[in-house]
Amino acid sequence: MSQPHLDLHETASSEPRRGFMTHILAAGIGLLVGAVPACAGLAFFLDPLMRKKKGGSGDGFLKMPVSLDALEINGEPQLVKIIMDKVDAWNTYLKQPVGAVYLRRTDKDKVVAFNSRCPHLGCAVDYKPSEKHYFCPCHTSTFGVDGIKQNEIPPRDLDNLEVQIRNGGEVWLKFQNFRATTPEKIPVG
To answer: What is the pTM of this model?
Structure first.
């Protein structure tokens, strides 16, 4: 009987091919398995940059809990706390106090707003009805009812904020904090 013919050349060349394909498949599977956690980690760290800020009306304005009718024309300013959601990189803190403003109605359909922080060092100012001015207790700075500084201690007037009257009497405010100690009004945050 005849012996089957073994081609040693064919057997020897197919072994390296199989080994090469095994290495390629192992590397591909390894890359795929490693890419899943890498993509998840990247998405986690980029999430704060891609997330849109929520709250208010979408144009930066917040509805105040005070209506136009509640403000007397040329009356005393009313202190209103600003409550909104605070968002840091990964957390949202619902309904947190972030500041306060003084609202004062100056005309039939006009309301002015001042941030309650002194532009000198950021202390909270009080309105003194008997003297008809705002008073900063930190350095005895005073501001007129119109927000104009009355002495040289603060670097600028009280920071006025943008106000809109909507829907026939709702007061909407664009709240911002500004850097203290500078003559320019530079927004913070």
So the answer is: 0.69
